[in-house]
């Protein structure tokens, strides 16, 4: 396989097992520049593992991962990451600004500069939360917290944005909102987003990455019922509440 | 006729007069020590509370007893007169902080068992060292605090540890803050989260040692977590939580010391009963207004 320069993320024959239980097997995946892909698949299928491998938080047992031609640990600073919601203590005494500023911390600076604050404000603005900078983080609704965590990932000006279930526990309207924000951001950066709701996201994203031990990437134009059944091994009740995606899903210009 | 409440009030006034009495220098020292140490307790206690590592701090404070026992043992048996129990406590605290920190990072599902074991082994080692040391030692003064033993030298020691804890916390405030909030994210930002986690635990261990004299090693952990828990009812930001914790901690130690002097009670338990009941009552009140 040729390593082309327009690929941000390259996984080559990557395998990863947790305590002998294989999570991902022989995964080869190329993500090109300014891709907007949704990572879908059953629970325990390896979606979060895939993100953590890309971030270098986990090491593959076999295979090679390169981000912008570098090993993941060296490319980390170019990646903005939004972790799963449940993993954080939501009663933490911090304002929205405090949380977003964390995205500006580096290994060398001790305190935040004026530029850090300006970048944080821009990021808060980008996710449409500009009136909330002084609000307590724990006073926000679920969807607002998600947006603030996206702002934290954004304010380091990353080239790749990785989001782990940003729409868990939020209502449909908030979900629509989040994905329109992401679509705007996609002009400037590559975005991978883990999501449960395959029918819904296919309206917004360019490709769908299906993860269930194996990893397959499909352009949204090719998504159909057979394929989805195949990913979920058939034990899935499909609700095609968004049927128009097959006609309009590929109008990314 | 003098009522019970009035009697108590006069007794408290007597306690305040007692502070001015040169014979009661120890009481003045204890109050100064309490207020000095409250600075570290408020700051580090807040980090411990938000990071939810109260049980790690508990394990550290109990292992301190091993160091106290070792120091007494060496003082008597090896003739190392300079090896003060507080020095032993400090060493044991730092060593156990590093061990417990590494265990909590790497042991995964066995974490609580291993930390419980270290907790008990630390205390047991202390007792065995004292068993093998000739002479009589009032164990309860280490376990529950004893202000009669406080000297000017202790004040200098507490003052310098305090300065160290305060300086480090201010310097690395943003680091500790973000590592407590989301350690994984911070490691992605190129911050050595293991280092700052261990540093936080070492500072916790030093803070614990600060008040061993007044509160004792068994109860000291409560004073680390109660003031921040109360402060969290009304503090919106981390520094506010720290500020209120410092005030609360100084209030509890001072009031508790005066109570213990007035009614001839052990200082540690008096402070803990006062702060503990205040917290529990506020907690009920807080839940009640929320509903």
Description:
- The complex is a heterodimer of chains A (253) and B (291).
- Chain A is α/β, with parallel strands linked by helices and 253 residues long.
- Helices cover 29% and strands 24% of the residues of chain A.
- Chain A has a single domain, classed as P-loop containing nucleotide triphosphate hydrolases (Rossmann fold), CATH 3.40.50.300.
- Chain A contains 9 helices and 9 strands.
- In chain A, helix 4 crosses helix 5 (142-154).
- The radius of gyration of chain A is 18 Å and the shape is globular.
- Residues 234-253 of chain A have low confidence and may be disordered.
- Chain B has 14 helices and no strands.
- The model of chain B has no long low-confidence stretch (mean pLDDT 88).
- The N and C termini of chain B lie far apart (44 Å).
- Chain B has 291 residues and is an all-alpha fold.
- The interface between A and B is medium-sized, with 29 and 27 residues.
């Amino acid at each position: 396989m040729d390593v082309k320069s327009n690929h941000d993320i390259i996984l080559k024959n990557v395998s990863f097992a947790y305590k002998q239980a294989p999570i991902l097997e022989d995964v080869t995946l190329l993500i090109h520049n300014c891709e907007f892909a949704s990572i879908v698949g059953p629970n325990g299928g390896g979606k979060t593992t895939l993100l953590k491998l890309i971030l270098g938080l986990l090491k593959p047992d076999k295979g090679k991962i390169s981000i912008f031609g570098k090993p993941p640990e060296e490319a980390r600073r170019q990646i903005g990451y939004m972790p799963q919601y449940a993993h954080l203590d939501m009663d933490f005494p911090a304002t929205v600004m405090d949380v977003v500023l964390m995205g500006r911390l580096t290994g060398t600076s001790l305190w935040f500069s004026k530029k850090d604050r300006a970048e944080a404000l821009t990021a808060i603005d980008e996710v449409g939360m500009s009136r909330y900078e002084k609000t307590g983080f724990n006073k926000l609704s679920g969807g607002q917290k998600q947006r603030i965590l996206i702002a934290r990932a954004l304010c380091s000006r990353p080239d790749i944005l990785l989001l782990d279930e940003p729409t868990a526990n939020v209502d449909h309207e908030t979900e629509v909102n989040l994905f329109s924000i992401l679509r705007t951001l996609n002009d400037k950066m590559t975005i991978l987003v883990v999501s449960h709701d395959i029918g819904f996201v296919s309206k917004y994203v360019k490709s769908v990455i299906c993860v269930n031990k194996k990893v397959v990437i499909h352009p949204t134009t090719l998504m159909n019922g057979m394929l989805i059944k195949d990913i979920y091994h058939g034990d899935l009740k499909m609700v095609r509440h968004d049927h128009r995606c097959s006609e309009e899903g590929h109008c990314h210009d | 006729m003098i009522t019970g409440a009035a009697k108590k009030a006069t007794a408290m006034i007597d306690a305040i007069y007692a502070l001015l009495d040169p014979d009661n220098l120890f009481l003045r020292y204890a109050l100064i020590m309490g207020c000095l140490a409250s600075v570290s307790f408020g700051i580090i206690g807040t980090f411990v509370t938000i990071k939810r590592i109260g049980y790690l701090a508990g394990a550290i404070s109990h292992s301190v007893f091993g160091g106290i026992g070792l120091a007494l043992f060496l003082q008597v048996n090896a003739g190392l007169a300079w090896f003060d129990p507080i020095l032993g406590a400090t060493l044991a605290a730092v060593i156990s902080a590093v061990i417990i920190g590494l265990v909590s990072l790497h042991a995964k599902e066995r974490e609580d068992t291993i930390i419980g074991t270290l907790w008990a082994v630390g205390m047991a080692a202390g007792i065995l060292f004292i068993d093998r040391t000739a002479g009589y030692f009032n164990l309860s003064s280490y376990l529950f605090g004893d202000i009669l033993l406080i000297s000017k030298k202790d004040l200098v020691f507490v003052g310098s540890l305090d300065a160290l804890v305060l300086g480090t916390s201010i310097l690395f405030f943003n680091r500790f803050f973000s590592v407590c909030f989301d350690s994984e994210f911070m490691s992605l930002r190129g911050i050595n989260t293991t280092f700052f986690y261990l540093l936080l635990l070492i500072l916790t261990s030093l803070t614990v040692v600060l008040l061993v004299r007044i509160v004792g090693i068994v109860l000291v952990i409560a004073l680390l977590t109660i003031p921040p828990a109360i402060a969290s009812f009304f503090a919106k930001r981390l520094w506010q939580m720290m500020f209120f914790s410092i005030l609360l901690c100084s209030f509890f130690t001072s009031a508790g010391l005066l109570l213990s002097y007035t009614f001839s009670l052990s200082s540690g338990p008096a402070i803990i009963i006062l702060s503990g009941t205040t917290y529990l009552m506020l907690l009920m009140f807080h839940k009640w207004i929320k509903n």
